[in-house]
């Protein structure tokens, strides 16, 4: 009888141990599943946040371009070469540079580069030094264009880097004339602060007109380089076909 009691006790302990082990394994599996679910939720949340940020950027760009329509007063024909008379600038320099930085970023998002251009960064090179440089860096910092992080640096043709955009600041047109000869119709968007240098090959000019900032697009020059420009951008800009 004593042996039977001992055997029963051992059997009960063994069964209890097996049940406890099964519960432990079950709880362990539940915990691991909870961790996996948490990871999936965090990844999904990150994707949603990224998509929302991308959508916000697109809406911000679209809103910026639509606001340009309120600035535009005179529409010129794409098939005519015209000289646009501007008013004496009355806009403050701070507002001028802020608006130019906004325009440069917005315009670049509505220009499309050939598919054979394979770069990890969207590189903007600046010819010359002005307050626009710092304002542009500050405004574009952390932003992307066509999915690529934007990098801004002084234009250096000796580096052999591919620049998506070259910005020519005021009073640097002579330097641009020399550099433009080396571009050979490469798919590079050239933006300058002066509207009177289109014949030198600039595709976009951003300039003050009274208390506003306007921009003009030379569609023919853009097409020569193999770039494509959004029709919406052409509707919002002063255009010329030189």
Describe this structure in words.
It is a single chain. With 242 residues, this protein is α/β, with parallel strands linked by helices. It folds into 2 domains: 1-61; 72-240, 3-Layer(aba) Sandwich (Rossmann fold), CATH 3.40.50. It is 50% helix and 18% strand. The chain is built from 6 helices and 10 strands, in the order H-H-E-E-H-E-E-E-H-E-E-E-H-E-H-E. Strands 3-4-2-5-6-7-8-10 form an 8-stranded mixed sheet, with helices on both faces. Strands 1-9 form a two-stranded antiparallel sheet. Helix 1 packs across helix 2 (93-109) and helix 2 (93-109) packs across helix 3. The longest helix has 70 residues, at 2-71. It is elongated, with a radius of gyration of 30 Å. The termini are far apart. The model is unreliable at 70-83 (pLDDT under 50).
* Share of helical residues: 40-55%
Q: Kindly name the structural category.
A: alpha/beta
Shape category: elongated
**How much strand?**
15-25%
* CATH homologous superfamily designation of the largest domain: Response regulator
Q: What's the N-to-C terminus distance? A: 113 Å
User: Helical region count?
Assistant: 6
Order of helices and strands: HHEEHEEEHEEEHEHE
Order of the strands making up the biggest sheet: 3-4-2-5-6-7-8-10
State the CATH class of the largest domain.
Alpha Beta
Mean pLDDT over the full residue set: 74
Largest sheet: 8 strands, mixed
Count of spatially separate domains: 2
Q: Write down how many β-strands occur, each being a DSSP E stretch of 2 or more residues.
A: 10
Radius of gyration: 30 Å
Low-confidence stretches: 70-83
Named at the architecture level, the CATH assignment of the largest domain is 3-Layer(aba) Sandwich
CATH topology grouping of the largest domain: Rossmann fold
